[in-house]
Amino acid sequence: MKITCICVAGTPGQSETSARVSGDVITVGGVSFDLSDVPDGGFAEPEGENHPFIGRIERINGELHVQLRWFFFKVTAEPDQPAVPPTFTVASGPVPDPIVRKPQTGEVEA
């Protein structure tokens, strides 16, 4: 699955986005979306407001292409994020965090 992350600073109290892929299923924030019905060369238009997708979900040459709204905490992120939305190809497992994070401070226990 080819995933483009549209990164958005979340509002106070909002959770950061996390996602995982298993075949044609993407789980975002604990909610699974089965995209297996999207035909090759076709697309689906997400409906309603209870989904993380932006724009069409497409299947191109057998690979699903999605854009996800990716919320992050401003306090842990660098102020300058990449101008081009990060894109990852994930067949199975977690979607990498697309946010450039501030260095962690504090002492590390040995």
Explain the overall architecture.
It is a single chain. This protein has 110 residues and is mainly β. The protein contains no helices and 9 strands. The model has no long low-confidence stretch (mean pLDDT 94).
Summarize the structure.
With 110 residues, the protein is an all-beta fold. The chain is 0% helix and 38% strand. A hairpin with a 2-residue loop joins β3 and β4 (31-34).
The gross shape turns out to be: elongated
> The biggest beta sheet, please?
5 strands, mixed
Count of strand segments: 9
Residues in helices, as a percent range: under 10%
Please state the CA-atom Rg, rounded to the nearest Å: 15 Å
Average pLDDT, to the nearest integer?
94
Secondary-structure map:
Layout (H helix, E strand, L loop, with lengths): L1 E8 L9 E4 L2 E4 L2 E4 L8 E2 L12 E4 L2 E10 L14 E3 L2 E3 L16
Parallel strand pairs: 1-7
Antiparallel strand pairs: 1-8, 2-3, 2-9, 3-4, 5-6, 6-7
